[in-house]
Design goal:
The protein is α+β, with helices and mostly antiparallel strands. It contains nine helices and 13 strands. The longest helix is centred in the last third of the chain and has 20 residues. The structure holds (3R)-3-hydroxy-3-methyl-5-(phosphonooxy)pentanoic acid (PMV).
């Protein structure tokens, strides 16, 4: 039996809360280069492997928390009021519920994603990270950033990494309460590093990451090789990042992503997130590499592709992929 989220959080809360008037926070989205795939504890979102990501600068989520004057909790998303019965509002309010104790004060949560809808990125990582920071400020909890990262993880695993900009490593941790399972920023800048977002489909993903991970763990024989590969890839990626080597970073990240997808495809029923368009882009990337262009890709639990490259090749890649949306992770 795992410890409940509420039990873990309660250990860090003051005896009585002193809410402020309002609090605002921003957190960036992130793309994993060494993926998180598989939970050792599904209640606390504790991972089977450590992971490493790059945050997407200004693309992410702004969240503002204040007292609701309507007398009820209110949730707003991208300028629209959201029904409190919707899955989105329920998830968000139940997360806030971990922190508000017995306070009856109703809240107004206004959340705005700066990720363009055309980019095809999940917003749960930046969403829970921004919400956690806003809660910390609103209730004047003054929690240190490792604790905020560990708590954001309980909303969505990858949210632990969205507390920081730049390259970020999430250590899996070993504790039962998960408080050593949090992220930290790698202390380096790489201003020339670029991520290119290629949205290939607008459809909602058929199987979300939580169910996908569960199914993979239960049914894929290949999964047993994953934790070891992820551990080795993480070491290589950290070295690549500090050496600013795009070939080392790109090749390890692409291999890591395809290995994660191999575990998904070998699940039953199979989890194939790719579309024919995804495969066409992969082949185009490989052809460009054959011609000497240092470009690599990574993919998450969906059909969209993220390209990894450096500034000097940006113009050529934008010509090769007219829909490419380029992010400069170190522009903030
Ligand atoms: O944080 P979740 O539950 O959305 O899972 C994220 C899973 C991947 O995006 C596939 C990998 C990762 O590390 O972000």
């Amino acid at each position: 039996m795992s410890i409940s989220k509420a039990e873990v959080v309660a250990r860090y809360l003051p005896k009585s809360l002193a809410p402020g008037v309002s609090a605002e926070a921003f957190a960036p989205s992130n793309i994993a280069l060494c993926k998180y795939w598989g939970k050792r504890d599904a209640e606390l979102n504790l991972p089977i492997n450590s992971s490493l990501s790059i945050s997407l600068a200004k693309l992410g989520t702004h969240t503002c928390l204040s007292e609701s004057v309507s007398g009820q909790d209110e949730v707003w998303l991208n300028g629209e009021s959201i029904s409190s019965n919707s899955t989105f509002a329920k998830k968000l309010l139940s997360f806030i519920g971990l922190f508000r104790g017995n306070l009856s004060q109703p809240l107004r949560v206004v959340t705005t994603n700066t990720v363009p809808t055309a980019a095809g990125l999940a917003s749960s990582a930046s969403g829970f990270a921004a919400l956690m920071m806003a809660i910390n400020e609103f209730y004047r909890l003054s929690l240190p950033s490792e604790v905020l990262s560990a708590f954001a993880r309980m909303g969505s695993g990858s949210a632990s990494r969205s507390l920081y900009h730049g390259f970020v490593e999430w250590q899996m941790g070993v504790r039962e309460d998960g408080m050593d399972s949090h992220a930290q920023r790698l202390d380096l800048q790489w201003p020339e590093f670029r991520i290119g977002l290629l949205k290939l489909s607008t459809e909602q993903k058929a199987v979300d990451s939580r169910s996908g991970m569960g199914r993979t763990l239960e049914t894929s024989h290949l999964y047993s090789a994953w934790p070891m590969q992820a551990a080795l890839d993480l070491e290589k990626l950290r070295a690549a990042v500090f050496e600013r080597s795009i070939d080392q970073l790109g090749s390890v990240a692409e291999h890591n992503s395809l290995s994660m997808h191999a575990t998904m495809i070998s699940s039953w029923p199979p989890l194939l997130y790719w579309l024919p368009e995804s495969v066409a882009v992969m082949r185009q990337v490989w052809a460009l590499r054959e011609q000497g262009m240092p470009v690599y890709f990574t993919m998450d639990a969906g059909p969209n592709i993220k390209l990894l490259f450096t500034k000097e090749h940006q113009v050529s890649l934008q010509q090769a992929f007219p829909l490419l949306e380029v992010v400069e992770p170190f522009s903030v």
